[in-house]
Amino acid sequence: MNDLFLPAVHDAFEPTPAAAHARIDALDPARYARTRNHLDGAVSRLSPYLTHGLVDVPSVIARLGQRHTLTPADKIVFELAWREYFHHLWRHWGDGILSARRPAPAARYAAELPADVREGRTGVPVIDASVRTLYDTGYLHNHARMWLASYLVHLRKTGWLAGATWMYRHLLDGDLASNMLSWQWVAGTLTGKPYLFNAENVARYAPALASRGTAIDDSYESLDRRARHAADCGPEPGAHTGIEEPDAGAPPAESAALPTGADPVWLVHPWSLGEVPPGHVAVGWIEPGFHARFGWSAARWAFVAARMRALCDSVVVGNADRLRLLWPTARLSAQATLNPFYAEALRDARVTLQPVPRQFDDPPRPQPSFSRFWQTVAPDASTARPWHR
């Protein structure tokens, strides 16, 4: 393999709304639809900005609609709806997204990743390139994420939660619902059907990494049997050069001086890095319980901290008790989030919440599949939110 990285991903993500807007303005919906499955396709790379709240789905569609005629039938709109679908399920299931919704295909899975996968030395070119790219950039094309997850779960017999937690730790755009439920979708524990891929599929969408002659060079019928009955296939024969997995990063420290007399206060948490409402004192906020459970890379912390510095003069680290100790009578406001520890702290500190904008309706009952969700919300999508033409 001449290139140890996936194509066209060495791309800096500047943590500013202007950078997000530039990506939206450069996006061609028709070209996106034609090429999005290819690893060098014209995808948006907006996910870090969506995850961290610098933009939201309605604002992306509105801005894109200023240059292009959009309808719910456009592929870019359809794919953005997946994010809202996963958050729809998260609202209903809460921490249940961290548990399998259906039985997995095989009887046993390991609770830890194989060392050769962690170190990118499986001998399967597309897998090793994906691991290296994940560590190097914090970003993976969605197809590469699916291939990596499928290989780990179905051929290496690694539990989906172990794989999802590992990937989340290294992603710049890690969204808990999208990541965990995507891994469940691949594992078959969300819908009951495992996602499988083979070398022919890779050759079509990433020809330089086709991985012929490796464990993935097999028919779908055989791969399905292996997913259900075979043991860990192990790495490819021979010696393969690996890399070291990066350590987790550390969150910002609390500021020495906090505006304890401020009122009203807008709490800027890592998923609300958009503009601060007028008339508020902005204070960055880190809830340490969440980050003790779900580690982040140093690059992700750098992204979040840089944007917090641009919005806030200070950062507080603590739970609900800490917030109310600092501002016992102040009016505290923040954007709502479903992330555990943060959500509970916002509730317990009696923070006034601003909902995250949605493009599509949020059905009152959990929809069992994306297709059912889409059938429910798409007919009214053009009237529920304005479509810019």
Describe this protein's structure.
This protein has 389 residues and is mainly alpha-helical. It has three domains: 17-98, Serine Threonine Protein Phosphatase 5, Tetratricopeptide repeat; 115-229, DNA Cyclobutane Dipyrimidine Photolyase, subunit A, domain 3, CATH 1.10.579; 265-354. It contains 18 helices and five strands. The protein has helices at 17-26, 29-35, 47-51, 57-65, 75-93, 115-118, 125-137, 142-155, 160-170, 176-187, 199-205, 220-229, 288-293, 298-311, 320-326, 342-348, 370-377, 381-384, and strands at residues 265-268, 281-286, 315-317, 332-335, 352-354. Helix 7 (125-137) packs across helix 8 (142-155), helix 8 packs across helix 10 and helix 9 (160-170) packs antiparallel against helix 10 (176-187). The longest helix is centred in the first third of the chain and has 19 residues, at 75-93. The N and C termini lie far apart (46 Å).
Characterize the overall form. Answer: globular
Going by CATH, the homologous superfamily of the largest domain would be DNA Cyclobutane Dipyrimidine Photolyase, subunit A, domain 3
Uncertain spans: none
Largest sheet: 5 strands, parallel
Fraction of residues in helix = 40-55%
Beta-strand content estimate: 5-15%
Count of separate structural domains: 3
